[in-house]
Amino acid sequence: MAETFQGNVENRGSEESEMKFLNGLQPVSLLVLRWALALIFVYHGYPKLVKPSAEMQAFFVQHGLPGYFVHVAAVLECGGALLLAAGLFTRPVALLLAAEMSVAIWKVHSLHGAMAVKEYEFPLAVGAACFALATVGAGVLSADGLLLGDGGKKRRASKSATKE
To answer: Which residue from 24, 110, 138, 142 has the fewest beta carbons nearer than 10 Å?
Structure first.
C-alpha cells in the first residue's frame, strides 16, 4: 500500500514538471481570455447601444430594473469590451462586468431557482471569467502591462526608490 502511494506521488511530481511549459503561455492565455470576453460583450452590448428599443426597456422594467439601465448596460458592455481588448483598466472594468453578470443572474436568469443551472450557466461562466481577470490582471500583453509593468510593481518600486 505504501509503495503504491509513493508511486502516485512520484508520478504526480513528474506530471507537474511536464506541465510547467504552460506557465510560459500565461500572457497569451490572458490575452485570449480578454479578447474572448470582449467579443462576447460587444455582441451583447452593441444592439443595446445602437437600437435601444422600447421592448428592451420594457424587458429591463419587467425584471425589476429601471428602463434607463439599457443604456448603462450598453455603455458598460461595449466600452468595457474595448478596454478589455486593449487591456486598459482591466481590473476595474472586469470587476464591473462581473457585477453586471451577477445582477443579470439575480434579476433575469435565476427565476426558476438555483437548481436551474441551465438558465444562468452562460452569464455565470462569463461573470466568473471576468472576476478571475479582475483578480489576476491583464498580463504583460496589454496596455496595463506596458503602463504599469508586472501588476503595477514597477511603478510602485520606482516611487519608493525616489522617496529615499
So the answer is: 24
